[in-house]
Amino acid sequence: MKKSWLAATAALVLAVAPLAGCGDKKEETTAASPAASTAAASTAAATGGTIKIGANFELTGGQASFGSSSLKGVKLAVKEINAAGGVLGKQLEIVQADNTSKSEESTRAAQKLISNDKVVALLGPVTSTNVLAALPVAQEKKVPLITPTATNPKITVDERTNKVNDFAFRTCFIDPFQGKVAADFAQKELKAATAVVFSDSSSDYSKGLLKYFKETFTKNGGKILAEESYQQKDTDFKAVLTRIKEKNPDFIYVPGYYEEVGKIVKQARELGIKAAMMGGDGWDSPQLFEIAGKDALNNTYMSNHYAADDTSPEVQAFVTAYKKDYNNEVPDALAALSYDATKLLADAIKRAGAAEPEKIKDALAKTKDLKLATGVLTLNETHDPVKSAVVVEFKDGKQVFKSKVNP
Ligand code: PHE
Asked: What's the pLDDT score for residue 48?
């Protein structure tokens, strides 16, 4: 596992190296965060005009696979935008910060990017909990934050006041829809009458999905036999899985992230649990196969944002460009959504007519019919796109597209 991860990282470094252009390309590291660096296009340096955008991602820690894919998507989009002349006559410049997959560091990274680096907008983080930690900074400093991937409804609509967070935007569907997709799939496709839910109590994403899954599953007449939970960084799930096995459910819903999910699936199969298991987009990582093993993953499913084998010309143009830059690697949903979030931001800056955070925010809120890799994007009154989901099956070491579900 370690080895291939290193290889992947090395491939990433090689693949992104040309993105900064030739000539006086430099990597700058600021004192505030050693992991932050600036990759400026040399042409921009020559004209002295760049528009700085912040990339606050999970580059190390338990969700590193998410952050690494996301950053690759952002870099590919920036490369294309800059090659086509940039935005408002200026090149885009990515200032990246590693939030180490932690909420405190996500807050700190947002502060640093806004206050020290003076970025005009933030991309990321990936996960709902980390976005919820970074967002108050964006709201307070009045700098728009676009999360490509965080699906919890609380991000765009403040739970307590029920008001739209005016600086929060995203390019993905939200979890009331994703939870329903899973419950419908379990009941209609897999004919599950009973389910056990096993969620991550340290994640806002997981807690949300659990709630929405249960709502649909029980409304449709299904029975939840037990509710169990774990915490991120747990490694031994056997005691709980033994209890789950005794209930003998038709279906087990595990709305978590690949690091723990991989171990849960592996240990469940070791205990002889044969039931279908399913999760949401948080399962989407090449690491999942390495942690769980391909056989254990048979008869498991996830809901997700896009499938790389979708034949639409937009998806295929993106997949081809990505593979070309990244050593033939097939882009996951995180890469696709981050690519789209960057294009969305560039479009908003253009429509705003100025690289000023508040104007960009106003333009973002008006996004309509923007053609992107994962579909045509219109943001509704809560800054959420309405998009279809896909259901993917893990089969013999591969992700296999099962169906597309429209909202
Ligand atoms: N939706 C997840 C969250 O809100 C993040 C995620 C998106 C993870 C897509 C993987 C793929 O935390």
From this structure: 55
Residue 18 host element (H or E) = none
Q: Homologous superfamily of 3-173+314-387 in CATH?
A: Response regulator (3.40.50.2300)
Residue found under tokens 């894919």: 69
CA of 306 to the centre of ligand 1 (A): 12
Q: Is the pLDDT of residue 40 over 90?
A: no
Q: Is the pTM of this model over 0.85?
A: yes
pLDDT at 309: 87
User: What are residue 301's DSSP bridge partners?
Assistant: 278, 393
Choose the residue to mutate in 130, 135, 146, 149 for probing ligand 1, maximizing ligand atoms within 8 Å of C-beta: 149
Q: What is the CA radius of gyration of the chain?
A: 21
pLDDT exceeds cutoff 80 at 216? yes
Using omega within 30 degrees of 0 as the cis cutoff, is the peptide bond preceding 125 cis?
yes
Going from N- to C-terminal start, the domains of the chain cover: 3-173+314-387, 175-304
Fold of the domain spanning 175-304: Rossmann fold (3.40.50)
C-alpha span between 125 and 132 (Å, rounded): 9
Over residues 133-160, mean pLDDT:
98
Position 294, amino acid: K
Answer whether 3-173+314-387 and 175-304 agree in fold: yes
